[in-house]
Protein: Glycoside hydrolase family 1 protein
Amino acid sequence: MMSFPKNFLWGGATAANQLEGAYDVDGRGPSIDDIAPGGKDRMKIIKSPDFDWQPNPKYTYPNHEGIDFYHHHKEDIALFAEMGFKAYRFSISWSRIFPRGDEEQPNEKGLTFYQNVIDECLKYNIEPVITISHYELPLYLAEHYGGWKNKQLIGFFKHYADTVIDRFGDQVKYWLTFNEINSAASFPFSSQGMIAKTGADDKRNVFQAWHNQFVGSAYAVKAAHEKNPDSQVGNMIVYATNYAYDANPVNQLAALKFDQEFNYYTTDVQVRGEYPAYSESLYKQYGFTGSDLDRTPEELALLKKYHVDFLSFSYYMSSVTEVTGKVSEKTAGNILGGLKNPFLKESEWGWQIDPVGLRVGLNRLYDRYQVPLFIVENGLGAADTVEPDGKINDDYRIDYLKSHVEAIQGAIDDGVPVMGYTPWGCIDLVSLSTGEMSKRYGFIYVDMDDQGRGTLARSKKKSFYWYKQVIASNGADLSSDHLDY
Structure:
C-alpha cells in the first residue's frame, strides 16, 4: 500500500464540554451540556417531554469537573507532544467567551485560557485544529431564544466566530465550524440546543436550525479566509457508512434515502454550497416544503460563496438499513443506534466495529465531494483495568485503532486524499452518550470514576506507546508485540 503523506496530521481530539471542567470559573457561563445528567439514561432523560433546562439534584453532572483540563492543560499537551502529535483537535466553549452568548464584549479570561492552550500546542509544533461550536451552546441562548431554530442566533454566532478567529486566526490554520452538525437528525439537543418543550420533535424546526447554522458556518469561513488566506475551514459530521441489509431493491432504496438525509444533506450544503435536488422530497416526508423555511436569497448566495475547504467527520460504526421487517435485533451507536449487522463484532457498549466501513466511507465521500477528508474522531470506548503494577494493557484498543489505520491507508491507496487522523478522547474524558468516565477512549488514563472520585492523576496506557510508534513511523509500523511497556 501507499505510505501516508509526509504532512499527515496525526494527533488526537477532545471537546471542551467533556474535559475542561471549571464550568463556573473565570466568568464562564452555563452551557446546555452542563445540565445533561450523567449515567446510561442520559439520552432518555434529555429526550423526555418533561425535560427542561433546570438541573435536578437527583442527578450527577460529571461535565462540571470533567478531567479539569482547565488547570492541567500544560501537563496534558506535554503528554500529547511526547506521543509526537502533529495536530490537536479541541473546541472552544462559547459560554467561556460569551457567558450568555449574546453579549457585545467577550470574557477576556476565557480568551486568555485558549490563548494559553494554543501557545502550548505551538511550543511543541502541534497544529491546533479548533472546533468553534462543539455541543456546548450557551444555556441562555437555548432558554431565552429557543436554540438554533431562532435566526437571531446567526448574528450571535457570527460575533462569537469573528471574535475567536480575529484573536487566534494568525496562529490557527485549521478550523471546524459545527461538530457533528447532522446529529440533529436524531438528537437536536446537543447540536441545536432544542428539547421537546422547545420544538425538537418538529422536523421543520430542525431543518430551519440547520439552515441557520449553514449561514453561521459560511460567515465563519469568510472570517477565517479574510483573517488568514492560508487558513482552511471544514464542516464536521458524524458519518455512519450505511449498507442495505440485502439485495432487496426496497432496502437498497431505503439505504439511499438514509444516506441522503443523514450522511449527505448537511454536507451537500456546506461543501457544495447549495441545497441538493432531493431536498423537497425530504421535506415532503415531514409535511412541509422548502418555501416554509425562512431562507433569503442573500443567505443562499452566502452559502454558495463561502463553502468549506475540506470535509471532516467522526467514524465509530456503520449502520444497516432494512425496512421489510425481516430484521429486528437492534444495536447501540454514536447518536443513533440501528439494526444489528451479523458480520460485525460489537464493543462493550454495543457499538459495531467495522474498519472496512471506514475505507468504504472515505471512498464514497471523496467520490461525491472531491475535497480533502479529515477523520477527526474515531476510537474504542472500553472499561480499562489498572493492573497492580500500575499498567493498563489495552491491547483491545490497539487492535481497534490498528485496523482503522489500515483502512485509512487502504483508502489512500485507492486515491483518496486524507489530511489526518485524530482519534477521539486521546486522554480519558466524560463520555457524551452516557456521561460516564468508565467508558474510556484515551491513550492517557485519568484517575476519576463515574461518581467523581479520584486523584485526576494521569498515566500512560500501552496504547500510548503504540501510537507514539505509529506517528514516529508515519504509519509504517503498526505492530505491538515488541513495545517496551
